Amino acid sequence: MSASWQRQLWQRVSTLWWLKALGTTAFMWVFFLFYFELLHDPVFPVTVMPDTWIDRIVAFSPHWVIVYFSLWVYVSLPGALQPDLRGLLWHGVSAFLMCAAGLAFYYWYPTTFDQPRVDWSSQPLGRILQSVDAPGNAFPSMHVAYALFAWAWIRHELLEMRAPRWLHITSLLWCIAIGFSTLATKQHVWWDVLAGIALGLSAGCMAVLATRWRKARLQRQSAPVSLQP
């Protein structure tokens, strides 16, 4: 009988935890080096993304900034749930490819948008966000893309552990809330979110399908060969 999902969860999180923590931190640091370099010094002319009726009906709410920042916890979960070094490296490569695609957009097609004036006086995290993140590098929204990419990986790992349905629902709702927070904090417009959905879902689905294929191939190679008498 397979181990309970709680035991599997602990085993996965505790395996190579120091490497997972260091790797995730280093990965985010390197990404933001390129992100802010392209944000402050775009190579090509910057396109202003138009708003839509969706942007106009979603009201600004400073409280959503907490959910917005929770992305950095959420995107660290797929790496933390990897059961071994090979899975961790495979996840890292897929995350690198998705982020490279997003940075390529920021290089070849830099964008911005008319960010409305908002009041962050009641939310210190919002003032920090406003001070470091200018309205640029918007299309696609990497916040949305990475949230969906992480959701696809988390769903895959939860299915392998046979985790209960409430964990799947919690992960999905968290992902949706992160996506909505990009609109509610006025950090993105709908076109950015839509492009982020396309990038994150396609990258996440391809990564999960690839890792399933890899694991199935390893199982076939390790399966004993029956000898006919």
Automatic annotation (TrEMBL):
The keyword Ion transport does not apply. Pfam families: PAP2 (PF01569). The lineage of its organism: Bacteria, Pseudomonadati, Pseudomonadota, Betaproteobacteria, Burkholderiales. The chain crosses the membrane at residues 16-36, 56-75, 87-109, 138-154, 166-184, 190-210. Gene3D superfamilies: Phosphatidic acid phosphatase type 2/haloperoxidase. The keyword Mitochondrion does not apply. This is PAP2 superfamily protein. Keywords: Membrane, Transmembrane, Transmembrane helix. Residues 99-213 form the Phosphatidic acid phosphatase type 2/haloperoxidase domain. It comes from the Bacteria.
